[in-house]
Amino acid sequence: MLPFLGLLSALLAGVFSVYFLQKFCFPYFWRDLTFLLKAIKYGARLELLKHSSTMPTVMGRFVQQAQRIPNKPFVICEGRALTYREVDERSNRLAHVLLGRSSLEKGDCVALLMSNEPDFVCVWFALVKIGCSVAFLNTNIRSKSLLHCIHCCGAKALIVGSDLVECLDGIFSNLQEQNIQVWTVTDHSENTLVHTLLDKIDVVSHHHVPAKLRAAKSLKSPILYIFTSGTTGFPKAAVITHLQCLKAAGGFWLFGATKDDVIYIPLPLYHSAASLIGIGGTIELGATCVLKKKFSSSQFWNDCRKYNVTVFQYIGELCRYLCNQPKTEADKVHKVRMAVGNGLQQDVWREFQRRFGNIRIYEFYGSTEGNLCLMNHIGKIGTVGRSNFIYKFLFKYDLVKYDMEKEEPVKDQRGFCQRAGTGETGLLLSKVSSLTPFFGYKGSKQQTEKKLMKSVFVKGDTYVNTGDLMAEDREGFICFRDRLGDTFRWKGENVATMEVAEILGQVDFIQDVNVYGVKIPGHEGRGGMAAMTVRPGHRFDGKKLFEHVMSELPPYGRPIFIRLQEMIELTSTFKQQKIQLVQSGFNLSTISEPLYLLDLEQKNYIPLTDAFYQSIITGRRKL
């Protein structure tokens, strides 16, 4: 008996030792394991489907859901609800119209310029059903940028929402010269050369077009082009394959969302977060989504209560806007349990949860064109991802030391990059492999190659340069530090400084211009600022500059501040010097050169006075 009791005591002591070892040394073990098993399960299902008779696609999943839950609401927008069957049938009708009335064929690309509305989804699905790839166009871009986007993706046609037809002013003749057919989602057009869709859908069938048209030959076949700003000037068309769509569609499920959730999507559908994760995730779950035409901080919680929202998508700035709204007794009266997004700063994160209740916030990191996704499934405040040895085994990424002055990674004597230490800020690189392929950009091999780094740690390896600085702590949590290069983020959009500089350079009194982003207290991202020199014999004209930026640049791309200089400083490699300009910001106490501020009321760039400066840093002035 005594030996048995001793053995039992030893066993219990061992169990408790293992328990306390796990509890204090590996506190996230079980949550990590559960999340990884779910991710592996989802990936294994995709692998099995790849070997079935029909290649898996998000559209195929939607058609299945429309047959399985035909009467369940799929999209709700401005009080109007469309079921899975209604969206399926409406997209079928649109597909029949385009097949019968347009010259489109399987494999063609069609550009889509539409605001958030149910017909965005229906037209998108219709195009996929007839075998076309779709290029989502940013609704804020105009003139040359818009024309560039249409051309670079090789679009054979352009479909425009009824509220955006005026965006074609100035480029319609170019479209006609290029034989790009223009359709509008309305039943009437004053321009006889613009074809209409809605007057034709009632006389065609609501049954499916042949399934072979939408069938995918490979998961790596392009199906979408989503534009992202970069360092090369105009927006770049990131190639989105069936594989990327399927991976993104699993995001909500991985974070714990279910078919019973109602998902609120206030982000623009032309971005990958709303379309691939939001719409795709809703389809994967068989859930319902509420589509907001344009985000409104004053209507947000009323919408959540009205539609019984349980999950919403965000960007950091969105949550800050909500926290800046006047407090009410109904702040915690809602059914929201989860928020999924990125760019949320720690102070806003804490304030948001304190004020609006115990909402689980799940940050993730991943660029539209990137081959890596980091997910903070633990929900630790201030981190964008969670890593461990299993994740690193499956998805190879590294943080390497970066020299901010030379604007390049630090190399050793053999010419290889050096890994950043624990807690040290480094440049995030993601390895290109069969498991994590990189598909690059449409229309420019040079842009794709520029995104890659080769022979990083050993001769012949290839990594994607994310252009983002990160740090990983001892527990494996990854924090976003900053964005490198000529792109900064403002109002939830990426701003390409070279594109803005090129447009500003069209003003007759500007000789040289250097565009960059500066931190502004109380705001996410960076606000636009332009350092410029004036041509000899000319003078700075704030009103003329104001009129130019208002007509040629989207709201997020318009410089808030102007800094007049006698000369633009260059680096040793003859690049425009940005580091010192970024560091000095718009601080009147350290800048002796003239500073100007964008003023919407006076419709002018006016001198930045100390009063204006104080109103900006204290948050009294809206930007």
From TrEMBL:
<keyword id="KW-0812">Transmembrane</keyword>
<dbReference type="GO" id="GO:0044539">
    <property type="term" value="P:long-chain fatty acid import into cell"/>
</dbReference>
<keyword id="KW-0445">Lipid transport</keyword>
<dbReference type="GO" id="GO:0004467">
    <property type="term" value="F:long-chain fatty acid-CoA ligase activity"/>
</dbReference>
<dbReference type="GO" id="GO:0005886">
    <property type="term" value="C:plasma membrane"/>
</dbReference>
<keyword id="KW-1003">Cell membrane</keyword>
<keyword id="KW-0276">Fatty acid metabolism</keyword>
<dbReference type="GO" id="GO:0005324">
    <property type="term" value="F:long-chain fatty acid transmembrane transporter activity"/>
</dbReference>
<dbReference type="Pfam" id="PF00501">
    <property type="entry name" value="AMP-binding"/>
</dbReference>
<keyword id="KW-0443">Lipid metabolism</keyword>
<dbReference type="InterPro" id="IPR000873">
    <property type="entry name" value="AMP-dep_synth/lig_dom"/>
</dbReference>
<dbReference type="GO" id="GO:0000166">
    <property type="term" value="F:nucleotide binding"/>
</dbReference>
<dbReference type="InterPro" id="IPR045851">
    <property type="entry name" value="AMP-bd_C_sf"/>
</dbReference>
<keyword id="KW-0472">Membrane</keyword>
<protein>
    <recommendedName>
        <fullName>long-chain-fatty-acid--CoA ligase</fullName>
        <ecNumber>6.2.1.3</ecNumber>
    </recommendedName>
</protein>
<dbReference type="InterPro" id="IPR020845">
    <property type="entry name" value="AMP-binding_CS"/>
</dbReference>
<comment type="similarity">
    <text>Belongs to the ATP-dependent AMP-binding enzyme family.</text>
</comment>
<keyword id="KW-1133">Transmembrane helix</keyword>
<dbReference type="GO" id="GO:0005789">
    <property type="term" value="C:endoplasmic reticulum membrane"/>
</dbReference>
<dbReference type="InterPro" id="IPR025110">
    <property type="entry name" value="AMP-bd_C"/>
</dbReference>
<dbReference type="Pfam" id="PF13193">
    <property type="entry name" value="AMP-binding_C"/>
</dbReference>
<keyword id="KW-0436">Ligase</keyword>
<keyword id="KW-0813">Transport</keyword>
<feature type="domain" description="AMP-dependent synthetase/ligase">
    <location>
        <begin position="63"/>
        <end position="386"/>
    </location>
</feature>
<dbReference type="InterPro" id="IPR042099">
    <property type="entry name" value="ANL_N_sf"/>
</dbReference>
<feature type="domain" description="AMP-binding enzyme C-terminal">
    <location>
        <begin position="499"/>
        <end position="575"/>
    </location>
</feature>
<keyword id="KW-0547">Nucleotide-binding</keyword>
